[in-house]
Amino acid sequence: MGRAEYKQYDRFLVAVDCIIFGFDGTGLKALLIKRGFEPEIGKWSLMGGFARLEESIDEAAQRILLTLTGLEEIYMEQLHCFGEVARDPGGQVISVAYFALIKIDESDKEKLDSHQAKWFDLKKMPSLVFDHKDMVRLAKERLQQKVANHPIGFELLPNKFTMQQLQALYEAVYETSFDKRNFTRKILSLGVLQKLPEKEKTSSKKGAFYYVFDKKKYKKLESRGLSFL
Amino acid sequence: MGRAEYKQYDRFLVAVDCIIFGFDGTGLKALLIKRGFEPEIGKWSLMGGFARLEESIDEAAQRILLTLTGLEEIYMEQLHCFGEVARDPGGQVISVAYFALIKIDESDKEKLDSHQAKWFDLKKMPSLVFDHKDMVRLAKERLQQKVANHPIGFELLPNKFTMQQLQALYEAVYETSFDKRNFTRKILSLGVLQKLPEKEKTSSKKGAFYYVFDKKKYKKLESRGLSFL
DNA sequence: CTTAATAAGTGTCAATATAACATTTATATT
DNA sequence: AATATAAATGTTATATTGACACTTATTAAG
Predict the structure, then answer these.
(1) Cα A142 to Cα B142: distance, rounded to the nearest angstrom
(2) What is the mean pLDDT of residues B179-197?
(3) Where are the alpha helices (DSSP H) in chain B?
(4) In the prediction, which pLDDT does B2 show?
(5) Which of A35, A75, A121, A226 registers the highest number of CB atoms within 10 A of its CB?
(6) Contact A111, A67 (CB under 8 A)
């Protein structure tokens, strides 16, 4: 069969929805918008949009993230394709969900405002349209799995961060607490952090040393498979 | 916007492709078919088909697996949505890939024949249509990740299996070899296998005890998170 | 300048998990 | 009775994990 033969098959609208994670120092956050059109106008929703024939689905996801946040070259990963029949009452729509990790203060405030976007703590999420709650739950699980073996937590932190910020992030992701000494030992033993001579002085009198993630060192060790927990 | 508003957006053909894994005692295998229609007719391909508006994508995947193998209630998991623009020269088609684990001898031989289906060792795969090679590669990676923490390897073995069969399976999945004593100790320590009084006698004079996977025991321990490696 | 307050930084020990390694056992065949 | 075959099993050294508390650097207050 050629192009002609495919004509007989059904065609779907393909939406892309983005679970955008951020970290504010205390809790893991997701960026939600107030849905601006029917159905379910006015309810909280993930940022999404429809894919276009002339772009790949990955490109659609990037476009949608850019539209909301003004950000490009962001860590983003496909999560899952949601394809229940009546998941969107507005039409026969399948949705490919992506999750992104951004630094919360780097997004474009005006763009966020124009979409009535707001950060919500994952533990205090409002009710969401359609199956977006399932998407967020799955994204959180995937994030937990991924963070355990890949150095993506750093995407949520400033380039320079203290050991306590890093620990707070991991504690937020796993909703648990770690022993400070064991955590520091474990993370430093991986050999992918570089300690800066500089200190963060606002949160204590003594000051805490900054660290940066060293991508080159990581690339060398990556094949051996590091465990970040 | 209501149903009318969605009209303005592009619609896609949605294919579903299945990476069907099997294990024959030595190597990890994938089930391929000879593609029976254009484009790329006559080339090796994953089993696939187009999703229909009246079914979910998961249901489409099950339907396609059933069509080829005659099997239902099979372990199957969504892998990834492949959405490059020109991935299928026959039309604008996105594909949602699934991977399934089946017992190689339980599939319907006639159905397999009617699709000119054949099992290929993952290490000796022929060239495949479109992006199916990427799909297989990703499926293999996902299988490796998944098998490490979930008891899905048993889906590829007979209900009763010997410790050596199980070890051979893990060795095939990870393309490595394990020490027999350490492997046995590790697996048994999980406490999810039940040893039968019965022995498999064809491959040795002494005979090897059969084991079965005990789903009930696993369910009790699942929340603690078992490591199968 | 001394003291107090605050968060940062650090080490040990016990328990557990892993990795490396060879011999004995059960059975069928000759 | 001897032999051949694959199955079954245990020990030790090393590495990793988890539990646990005191010292240090600095600023602010008196």
Answers:
(1) 13
(2) 97
(3) 3-6, 57-69, 109-114, 132-149, 163-174, 180-189, 215-221
(4) 40
(5) A35
(6) yes
> Residues B68, B111: contact at Cβ < 8 Å?
yes
Residue B3 pLDDT exceeds 60? no
Which distant-in-sequence residues (6+ apart) come within 8 Å of A98 by Cβ? A16, A17, A18, A19, A61, A65, A76, A77, A78, A79
> Which residues of chain B are in CATH 3.90.79.10 domains?
3-148
Q: Read off φ and ψ for residue A208, nearest 5 degrees.
A: -120, 135
CB atoms A96 and B83 under 8 Å:
yes
Contacts with A121 (C-beta within 8 Å, 6 or more apart), sequence order: A27, A28, A29
Contact (Cβ atoms closer than 8 angstroms) between residue A201 and residue A207: yes
Task: Tell me the mean pLDDT in the region B199-226.
Answer: 95
Q: What is the pLDDT of residue A5?
A: 62
A65/A21 Cα distance (integer angstroms): 12
Measured to protein CB atoms, the chain D nucleotides within 7 Å are 4-11, 17-21, 24-28
Would the pLDDT of B4 be above 80? no
Q: Does A206 touch chain B (CB under 8 A)?
A: no
Instruction: Give the pLDDT confidence of B12-41 residue by residue, as tens digits.
Output: 999 999 999 999 999 999 999 999 888 899
For residue B170, give how far its alpha carbon lies from the nearest alpha carbon of chain A (Å): 18
Distance, in Å, from the CA atom of A185 to the CA atom of A179, rounded to the nearest integer, reads 10
pLDDT computed for residue B1 by the predictor? 37
Positions of chain A with pLDDT under 70? 1-5
Residue B6, chain A, CB below 8 Å: the answer is yes
pLDDT for the residue B6:
81
State the span(s) of chain A assigned CATH 1.10.10.10: 157-224
> For the domain A3-148, what is the CATH code?
3.90.79.10
Residue A137: exposure state from Cβ atoms within 10 A (0-12, 13-18, ≥19)? middle
**Pick from A6, A52, A80: which is nearest to B91 by CB?**
A6
Determine the pLDDT at residue B33: 98
Partners of B2 on chain A (C-beta within 8 Å) are 38-39, 90
Helix (H, G, I), strand (E, B) or coil at A55: coil
